[in-house]
Amino acid sequence: MLAERVAEPGLYLLDEPDAALSFTGSLSLVARVLDLVAVGAQLVVATHSPVVAALPGATLLEVGPWGLRPAVWEELELTASWRQFLGDPQSFLRHLT
Parallel, antiparallel, or unpaired for β 42-46 and 67-71? Predict the structure, then answer.
């Protein structure tokens, strides 16, 4: 949808555009965002995806109980959670049963 409806510079606000996307779909979204930035677009993207948050050149802001703060990808809470899950899924899944 982003590829078909957005083709020119502007300001775009995207709320969880990756919510229904696969890993490959998230990578495609990142590629499209990079294309838009290359033609002068600015985007504000709310995401829980470490793939989307890894967008090269992005300014990251993390929202939490502390409010809003600048962040780096390696230190994002979502990155740490995914890293832990992928390293040991049972450390999360055992709490579900």
Answer: unpaired
* Dihedral sign computed on CA atoms, order 4, 60, 63, 73: positive
Q: What is the mean pLDDT of residues 49-63?
A: 94
Q: Taken in order 75, 79, 84, 86, is the CA torsion positive or negative?
A: negative
Of 66, 3, 70, nearest in space to 32 by CA: 3
The DSSP-derived string for 7-41 is: -SSSEEEEESTTTT--HHHHHHHHHHHHHHHHTT-
Q: Is the pLDDT of residue 89 over 80?
A: yes
Alpha carbon 93 to chain centroid, angstroms? 23
pTM surpassing 0.85?
no
What average pLDDT does this structure show over 38-52? 93
